[in-house]
Design goal:
two-stranded antiparallel sheet; 186 residues; 5-stranded mixed β-sheet; 18% strand; 38% helix; 7 strands; 6 helices
């Protein structure tokens, strides 16, 4: 029996190596979100272009929409931005911006300089709505269905491949569905 005891640490080391190997093969951009399939968190925030107006999740029910979390200080946002501007011009889906922990004037200057792909952008100055959406950092992009349920989340800059292979097919599918009853917020 004592002769077999040396195998216990060896077996534990083998199990540890298996977990490490599996973890190293994961894509950090594919962090599963616990919000997929659940109602998008409620919000009502001021509109960036006119803070006297507000926009909330309730205003977006009945349509498929995309939420892009961005900031003027975000280098990766600048990387994805031309792609979003082109995507918005195609009119595939309304894109709403969640300006995250940013100054209003900085955000307005940034959009004036690089183009504005957003149907509307809302100001999340303190980041509380971003926290409700489980935002790890900017940029992040969500697709929300007609009933206000999150169907997709992408962490990091969207790419042409993500839009072509994941976002557009999902949007077509969701747009073709009949409006589902609006779920009660959890």
């Amino acid at each position: 029996m004592k002769k077999l005891l040396f195998l216990v640490p060896l077996a534990l080391f083998g199990v540890l190596l298996l977990f490490l190997g599996k973890g190293l093969n994961l894509n950090p951009r594919e962090v599963p979100s616990p919000l997929i399939g659940k109602p998008a968190p409620a919000f009502t925030l001021p509109v960036l272009a006119d803070p006297a107006k507000s926009l909330g999740r309730q205003d977006l029910l009945g349509q498929v929409w995309m939420l892009n979390v961005w900031a003027s200080w975000c280098a990766a946002c600048r990387e994805e931005h031309p792609l979003l501007v082109d995507f918005a011009k195609r009119g595939v889906v309304p894109i709403y911006g969640l300006n995250y922990k940013d100054g209003r004037e900085d955000a307005l200057r940034w959009l004036a300089r690089f183009g504005d792909p957003y149907t509307a952008s809302i100001i999340d100055r303190d980041g509380k709505v971003g926290i409700d959406y489980g935002v790890y950092g900017v940029p992040e992009t969500f697709v929300v269905d007609k009933a206000g349920v999150i169907r997709f989340k992408h962490i990091g800059p969207v790419t042409p491949e993500v839009l072509r292979d994941k976002v557009e097919p999902l949007i077509r599918k969701l747009a073709a569905e009949n409006p589902a009853p609006v779920p009660n917020p959890a």
